[in-house]
Amino acid sequence: MAEVADRTGLTRAGVRRLLYTLVKLGYARISNGRFSLSPRILDLGFSYLSSLTARGVAQPVIEGLAREVNELCTMSVLDGREIVYVIRVEIRTPLTRSLGIGSRLPAFATSMGRVLLAGENDQAINTFLLSQDLRRITRYTNTDPQQLAKEIRKVRREGWSLVKQELELGVCGLSAPVRDARGRVVAAASISFNMARFDERQAMHSFLPKLLTVAEEISLGIRSMPGDFVL
């Protein structure tokens, strides 16, 4: 309980009430004074995913891309400082990082995050970067706010992002924006590569056009849905 209070910044009394509420509802359990989540917590996560009608549009498209390029393909959304996987399809042998749906990654160090941030205006981007703990994750991680802002503006102009080994050594990501009917960037579609077999020329001439086509196909699907795309 003390650890939860420290991580959340809440009082111990408040944490106690919240944790025991979760236990009573079946979303958490307690053993020897330590709390852990129960399998029932998956109800909340999958309720969110099932509410995303856009996910139903995107899932088969991402699956088709993964089969075609034989690489890990994903779709993510921005949540605060992080991106969150909402679709993940992997055909080939898994990359070194084992991540599933719901996994979170720092937005500033990923191609998907930069695509999503590129949908914001310059002031919002600067505010976002200045509020971050831009820690060095690998020796390639860009932690300079001005350089990052410049890179994100470049992504906005070009319509795609390539980030190599800034999040994890040996892994790079190529991402493109998914837009709603108003033109807002609401998600990012991505292909991830193992650097041992990554050919940048092939990626730019073959994989990037496929990715851009997939992102546009998902965008068209979202635009055809009634109402706004809300996450």
Write up this protein:
The structure is a single chain. With 231 residues, the chain is an alpha+beta fold. The chain folds into 2 domains: 37 residues, Arc Repressor Mutant, subunit A, CATH 1.10.10; 179 residues, Beta-Lactamase. It contains 8 helices and 8 strands, in the order H-H-E-E-H-H-E-E-E-H-H-H-E-E-E-H. The strands form 2 sheets. Strands 5-4-3-8-7-6 form a 6-stranded antiparallel beta sheet, sandwiched between helices. A two-stranded antiparallel ribbon has the order 1-2. Helix 4 packs antiparallel against helix 8 and helix 6 runs antiparallel to helix 7.
Name its key features.
231 residues, alpha+beta, Arc Repressor Mutant, subunit A, Beta-Lactamase, 2 domains, six-stranded antiparallel β-sheet, 8 strands, 45% helix
Using the coordinates shown, work out and report the CATH topology of the largest domain: Beta-Lactamase
H/E series: HHEEHHEEEHHHEEEH
Strand order of the largest sheet: 5-4-3-8-7-6
CATH structural architecture of the largest domain = 2-Layer Sandwich
Question: How helical, in percent, are the residues?
Answer: 40-55%
- Mean pLDDT across all amino acids: 89
Estimate nothing, just give the exact number of structural domains. 2
CATH class category name of the largest domain: Alpha Beta
- Unreliable stretches (pLDDT < 50, length at least 5) are none
